Amino acid sequence: MVHCLSGKYWWPTLAKDVRVYVSSCSVCAQCKAPRHLPRGKLQPLPVPQRPWSHLLVDFLTDLPPSQGNTTILVVVDHFSKSCRLLPLPGLPTALQTAEALFTHVFRHYGVPEDIVSDRVPQFKSRVWKAFKERLGVSVSLTSGFHPESNGQVERVNQDVGRFLRSYYQDRPGEWAAFVPWAEMAQNSLRHFSTNLSPFQCVLGYQSVLAPWHQSQTEAPAVDDWFRRAEETWNAAHVHLQRAVLRQKVAADRHRSEAPVFAPGDRVWLSARNLPLRLPCRKLVPRFVGPFKVLRRVNEVCYRLQLPPDY
Questions:
Q1: CATH number for region 54-209+232-253
Q2: Quick one: which H or E segment has residue 198?
Q3: Domain Integrase catalytic, which positions (predicted)?
């Protein structure tokens, strides 16, 4: 546009005025594809101070029936990377999910401080809200269409799926019998972030995978065991912080700084994941709005005032 106008007109702020005019065009804002890097730097989850204080939860669904089970509840400890795999008859209700977590996780490791999960109905219901309030547990729901927020449990899902797939070819319908072995194998492997296996990080020693004969020496004192466990946790905490920094540096190479908005500002909303009821998906606007910003949730997330029909 600057080139076209320069052939016939000139004024001192021509380029600046054209830039402001084009950037404020609502049709262009809705229909043009963005050419910049994805907005917002990586915001890693905080590193916990001890094992099993911050949990990551997800479901592995649509599995073939095996011993009456078609779903696996996957629970991962954010500190030690330890996992619990709980086969279930189907996608559980909020009450069944709470009972499974209490029976198989909380009673062994204590009540956690925070649970990260996807926005599934089980973790948004009134039953789950009452359950977490009674126990004093905070629940962090991930952003929609953003699996990176719960990336640790998504990676465990991939590993467990690969493990079960290896046995399913020869023994279809028997994957439920191999879930305990998959859990033990996953917890026995050294994790890149902590430089320890989950067993070492939680228990202070590596689990025995082969026959082992105890030596004739006396068992170590309880104080010595706690000292070694604390040293292990401190080492794991240092490795976790370094791993988070490495992951953030690698991710931020492909991202740009997030724009800063204040409550009351009006912004455009990407229509990529919105089920707009239009006859041709190919030609729908790339952005809709503008909508009013209600509050800033964190460094990269905002809550918008959307129409009731959204």
A1: 3.30.420.10
A2: helix 198-203
A3: 47-206
